[in-house]
Amino acid sequence: MNSLVLLVLFINTFNALGKSQESNEVCKHTDIYNDHGYSNSNNYYFVPNTFHYGRSKSVEENNEHNHNEHKRNNENTFDICQSNSDDNQLFRNYIKSNILCVGQWCISDLMGPFGKRNNGWNCPKDSKRNCYEVEHIIPIENDIPELAWCDTNIFGNLIMAYGKWNGELSNGFLCEKKQIYGNEIYTKAYNSIVKCCSRKITYISGIIIAISILVIICSLIILYSYYKAHCYPESAKYSFEVL
Asked: What angle, 0 to 180 degrees and rounded to 10, lies between the N-to-C axes of helices 183-231 and 233-242?
């Protein structure tokens, strides 16, 4: 009996160690995380309001604004499917034009003609990445099967995050990203990619269907002309003479 108890304890301990090792392998952490922990106090890791940010001013919020002002604000509505530029400047420009940087890594000591330059989103080379950079919540290079053919470089998957942390991240740190960003942000970014990917596939499918229909129509016209020319040569000859 004692031997059986010891055997059960040994198996449970072995399984626990295996799960612990598996957990550590799956959820490995960056050096930044190991030194700092998971706290995003003072926007250490990322600036939350740069995720899915859209200008929300409306007539309801500003009754004194006229219809033209309301229309102008709506022109800046955030589009999750907007493709970002390869150098990330498109998203960075969008953020610095709309949001004042608030957090530990803002660099706003450079002054422009209208006050703080770039709203504090400066990231000069001499900063050694101690600034906020554009970060892809779901990495461009990822091993998620259902996103294999989807574009992850879209506004709905972008956020401003600590540069050094961004430099240490890769596809192997998805677990850490979920811990830092939280399930809500991570899931929302994932769903944005899926939604935009579906929209793109639908658009491409529509084009393919339209081209296929055009090819079929052209083929039918050619077949009809061939059939008429070979089966009714006199009729075809007469039609050409009339033309």
From this structure: 100
Query: For residue 116, what pLDDT is reported?
Result: 56
Helix (H) or strand (E) holding 162: strand 158-162
The span from the CA of 230 to the CA of 223, in Å, is 11
The torsion angles phi and psi of 162, rounded to 5 degrees, stand at -55, 125
Structure-token match 């961004």, residue found: 166
The DSSP element (H or E) to which 112 belongs, if any, is strand 111-112
For 171-203, write each residue's pLDDT tens digit. 779 999 999 999 999 999 999 999 999 865 544
DSSP string covering 75-111, please? TT---TTPBPPTTSHHHHHHHHHH----STT-B--SE
pLDDT along the chain (243 residues), means of 10: 40 40 64 96 96 58 42 62 94 92 84 62 89 95 90 96 94 90 96 86 53 69 69 55 49
Residue 83's DSSP bridge partners are 154
Q: What share of residues in the chain are helix, strand, coil (percent, to 5)?
A: 60, 10, 35
Q: Any idea what the Cα angle at residue 58 is, between residues 57 and 60, rounded to 5°?
A: 125
Closest CA relative to residue 186, chosen from 177, 199, 195: 177
**Which residue is listed with tokens 């996103």?**
147
The answer to whether 108 touches 117, Cβ cutoff 8 Å, is yes
What are residue 42's DSSP bridge partners?
A: none
Prediction pTM value: 0.65
- Residue whose token pair is 């677990």: 175
